[in-house]
Amino acid sequence: MKAKVLLLSFLLSGMLYAEIDVRVSNTNYTISQGSIFPDDDTRYLYNYDRLRLQADYSDEEFFATIIGDGVNYLGREYVSSPSFEYVKRIESNTPFSTQTNFYDYDEGNVYAKLYRLYAGYEDEYNRIVVGLQNITMGVGRIWNPTNLFNPRNTYALEPDEIFLVAAISYTRHIDDVSHLTLVVSQTKEDSYKYAARYKAFLEIADAAVNVVSSDETTMVGYEVEANLAETGIEVRSEGAYIKGELLVNLLEKEDVEFFQGIIGADYGFENGITVIAEALYTSQSFEYKEILLNIDSEILPNLLSSNIYLGTSLTYSFNLFLDGSLGYIESFNDKNSRFITPTLTYTLNDFNTFSLGAMIQNGDSDSEFGQFSNTYYLNYSLAF
User: What is the pLDDT of residues 317-354, one digit of tens each?
Assistant: First the structure.
């Protein structure tokens, strides 16, 4: 008993010298959304709410983070729909479940999940992180073809809300201008995915080589990012050669090989307008039914319906409280279509933010974006 008390006292005394930061946030959306299935004209009105608790611990070279979410969907018609059944199938590709079962009540559905849980060590030359984390690769602002772990989803309501990865990542800073990163992650099938990334500054640009390997997938990619002379324009490119396996039916798989790459540029004007432009090319496109069939594939984000896309984003601050943004993506196919995301954000203070936005899908009824309905939403975010 005495030994336990001494151990507890030692741990508590250590925590006195550590820094612990606790944050609470709540994100609430009221959403008007159509079905995610092309032949279904049903429209749903529902409320989505996420309560997030985050704790960050740091003590000299050591650090740890835990983020947990409580998620609630309110709207009986929506939570009983095939669209919601699809949402329930999408979860992290980890060796154990990171979320509870969905609990159904009279008017909605609720569940809890781990969003991040990791710990690590960092000094001048080394950084190691172990746990449920985010693996970053690529320089794209709209698309990330080289990131086969958890890429940004441009077409989602919250593009930066990405699934965690169960991994060990290690970065070695070789010198002031170069570093090597190694990653080992484990998937839900208890298989492993390995990655290596070497990045260095080469005279006029930052460049990197990325390699990812697993039982199902091989990827070799590159990144280049630089400032265009004295213009203030930042240019970038990212590309990946991908070889993997895809389902052609419920019992049979086939090998696929294709290249996917982006080129892009950013520029910030003196009047507060910032413009992002990016073009995406993929050597192989896929039909919508093929994409749905491979919902559990490691390369799902790389399965695209068109060979060429052009995207741009414009943001502008009208004043201290009011900001606007407009995103536009054109899909070049037999029948062109477009994805448009206007957003208006009002910041009341450091804790309260309101946003009004839409995801507009325009084109012929049998085109990539035109076959889906528009989404409209009102968002209220509280953080403290």
Answer: 999 999 999 999 999 998 999 999 999 999 999 999 99
- Compute, in degrees rounded to 10, the torsion defined by CA atoms 25, 31, 36, 41: 170
φ/ψ of 244, rounded to 5, equals: -155, -175
* CA 365, chain centre distance (Å): 28
Residue 3 has pLDDT above 60, yes or no: no
Q: Distances from the Cα of 383 to the Cαs of 26, 123, 321, 353, in angstroms?
A: 6, 31, 16, 9
Read off φ and ψ for residue 280, nearest 5 degrees: -125, 135
| CA distances, 3 to each of 7, 13, 16, 133, 290 (Å) | 6, 15, 20, 35, 61
Beta bridge partners of 342: 326
Over the Cα atoms of the chain, what is R_g?
22
Contact between 146 and 239 under an 8 Å Cβ cutoff? The reply is yes
The pairing of strands 19-34 and 205-214 is unpaired
201-230 pLDDT, tens digit each: 998 899 999 999 999 999 999 999 999 988
The candidate with the shortest Cα–Cα distance to 194, out of 224, 159, 169, is: 169
Question: What is d(CA 226, CA 143) in angstroms, rounded to the nearest whole number?
Answer: 18
One DSSP character per residue, 30-85 reads EEEEE-SSTT---EEEEEEEEEEEEEEEEETTEEEEEEEEEEEEE-HHHHTSHHHH
**Tokens linked to 378:** 């009102």
Does the pTM exceed 0.85?
Answer: yes
Amino acid at 67: I
